[in-house]
């Protein structure tokens, strides 16, 4: 019984390390998003950290329009990054979970 418990604890520790490594790797996964007309371009990591913004000069003339562009484009990029992040972390966590009867958390 204790051998199984120790084995499970080891497996959980290994999974935690893999999750942390995946989080670090996701800092290098870049998501590019742009407005439909290409006047605003955003690059963020899969951990939702903004890496770059490129704003066309035409948007600098209308503050309200620029704000709208930023909100829409950043939200699209964040949505994509969140999806990638959650999928990657869930895959690592599911793969590393010990087989405990009745604990089918990731099905």
UniProtKB/TrEMBL annotation:
Name recorded for this polypeptide: Nucleoid-associated protein BXY75_1411
Domain of life: Bacteria
Quaternary context: Homodimer.
PANTHER family: NUCLEOID-ASSOCIATED PROTEIN YBAB
Lineage: Bacteria, Pseudomonadati, Bacteroidota, Flavobacteriia, Flavobacteriales
Family: Belongs to the YbaB/EbfC family.
InterPro entries to which the protein is assigned, alphabetical: YbaB-like_sf, YbaB/EbfC
Originating species: Ulvibacter antarcticus
UniProt-annotated location(s): Cytoplasm, Nucleoid
UniProt GO MF annotations: DNA binding
GO cellular component, one term: bacterial nucleoid
Keyword terms, alphabetized: Cytoplasm, DNA-binding
Keyword DNA-binding included in the entry's annotation: yes
């Amino acid at each position: 019984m204790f051998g199984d418990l120790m084995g499970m604890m080891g497996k959980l520790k290994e999974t935690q390390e893999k999750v942390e490594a995946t989080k670090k790797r996701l800092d290098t996964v870049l998501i590019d998003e742009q407005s439909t007309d290409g006047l605003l371009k955003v690059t963020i990591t899969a951990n939702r950290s903004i890496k770059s913004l490129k704003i066309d000069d035409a948007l600098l003339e209308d503050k309200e329009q620029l704000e709208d562009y930023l909100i829409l484009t950043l939200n699209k990029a964040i949505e994509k990054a969140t999806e990638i992040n959650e999928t990657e972390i869930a895959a690592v966590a599911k793969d590393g979970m010990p087989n405990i009867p009745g604990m089918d958390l990731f099905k």
